[in-house]
Amino acid sequence: MRAKVVVFPIRGRNWCFSRSIDPSAAAAQSSTAPSTVTELWNKLSSSKPSEDSKVELAVDFFANKMNEAWTKLEKAPQGTLKNKIHGFGVKLLSRVKPSEIFFKSIPKEINRVDIVYPSSLNPRLVRRRLRHLAFRGSVIHTKYFYCSAIMVPLTSVFMVLPLPNIPFFWISFRAYSHWRASQGSEKLMHLVTDASYQPSDQTTKSEDSSTQDKKSENSATSPFVFQPSEELEKLIQNKDDDSCLSECGISKICEKYHLNVADVKKYSDSV
Length: 271
Fold this sequence. Notes:
The chain is an alpha/beta fold. The protein has helices at 23-31, 37-45, 51-74, 81-93, 98-104, 123-155, 166-194, 209-221, 230-235, 247-257, 261-269, and strands spanning 2-11, 14-20, 112-118, 224-229.
């Protein structure tokens, strides 16, 4: 399984790291997830998946149910309690860091990462920053996962109240989110660490054909492939007065590489 990651400076020293996901591929992936308890039980009863896969199936099933409940809150009439709860949840979600969203988009099944970055950037610097981000994310999200998991039973005591147990659902969501982010960051860190540094634009004219063929073969099997883009280089030149990528530039990049505009914009305000 392959994943395409788009990297580009968005404001000063702030870089955007986002996975490009084709909408058609996302729809096909979501269709394979179990939607009912019966489907979940049939997949869990099968001898094919491993124990880790069974745990992921169960977690994904309950995560999908939480997403369905969130969608119902979003469609609630204005002024109702459900609508107010949704508005409060949107404010909480706006505080989630964009790097966490990026790590959650990295599945454990990937065996190759294609890095698209502006041609003016040094590929060594791109790899170094991505490796640092992945290492830092694996430490932080693993730590916060355990903290959130410990708090889940404590917030369950609010179930006796006649109101929706918002703390329980929020802490449960944060535990799931940190767990997914820790898995994605660890997988990305392993791929970056194991990959040999062979950017495609470093082949010189003086090399003979056998050397070039050998590099091409290594590039095809490498888990980490650099793809400098002249088009992305042109798009990041559209900046505002404060050296921040303009709204128009962000929209064009997101449209070109199938990125989420709201998630990308968070990078300009992150520290």
